Amino acid sequence: MRNRWNLTVLLGLTLLALQGPTEAMRMRGEPLPGLANIERHRSTEAVPQGRVAGGTTAAEGKWPWIASIQNAYSYHLCGGLILNEYWVLTAASCVAGLRTLSLLVVTGTVDWWDLYAAYYSVSRIHVHCNYDKPLYHNDIALLQLSSKIEFNDVTKNITLADIDELEEGEKLTFAGWGSSEAMGTYGRYLQEASGTYLPVDACREKLQNQDDVDLGHVCVQMDAGKGACHGDTGGPLIDEQERLVGIGNWGVPCGRGYPDVYARIAFYNDWIRTTMNGCTIA
To answer: Which InterPro entries does the record cross-reference, listed alphabetically (predicted)?
Structure first.
């Protein structure tokens, strides 16, 4: 009986391993997106061919507020959003545990391999004090840059959604350089895809998960074959007025018909503004 139980457990673990990762933008029990890729080099990688699952290539200048958060070797880690000349918003899971010298912020391009894009160093990393308390909550961070971002036709700041007025079924669009399949290659060119807003209770039911989604999250339902994937963490979710309503947090990989989960910007507005003004708030 004991030997049979051990065999059953072994078969179960084998099946779990064969299923691969269980999270798209973040994987439970695995290194955080930033830490996982902090030592990767462009020179050791093939030219990336991946893309957001089911996404289409974004036109140059269509997402002027998006940034690629990269490591010191100019390898893409996560997405980010330009708030003003010195501040960039991203997910805490992208930068937690990293030093400022390990990060670069790249703006003004849809090609994260663009050597002629604008590169900025980071002077301070501000991770939400309650990040991952509990797990998958408060996954938001601010990067303070060492020099001023130069705005132009392809580099601008984004408008934040101050008030939570999303309605069920409302169209929302996200963009990122993530892979098209779990653990796949990151896309070289920015991809975009659209879905519809799903309220928290409906999202919990769809995900069969009561613990990891709350009022601090925005859920987006996309058709099967579309969705966020690895490399899309920290990327923007915008409404039809091009206001930022969320940043990529976590989901089920990749484009399997489950909702993707974003940090709700209206929920964190006070934290964002007080942190940028030199104060701290939980």
So the answer is: Peptidase_S1_PA, Peptidase_S1_PA_chymotrypsin, Peptidase_S1A, Trypsin_dom
**What's the whole-number mean pLDDT along residues 136-163?**
96
Contact 148, 227 (CB under 8 A): no
| Residue 209 pLDDT class (50, 70, 90 cuts) | confident
Q: Could you give the CA distance from residue 193 to residue 170 in angstroms, rounded to a whole number?
A: 14
Strands (E), the chain: 56-57, 66-71, 76-82, 87-90, 103-107, 118-127, 141-145, 159-160, 171-176, 191-198, 217-221, 236-238, 243-251, 260-264
Could you tell me if 196 and 202 are in contact, meaning their C-beta atoms sit under 8 angstroms apart?
no
**Dihedral (Cα; 73, 61, 155, 260), 10-degree rounding:** -70
pTM of the model: 0.84
Same-domain status, 225 and 114: no
* Residue 120's CATH number: 2.40.10.10
Residue 165 lies in a domain: yes
Residue with tokens 């923007």: 236
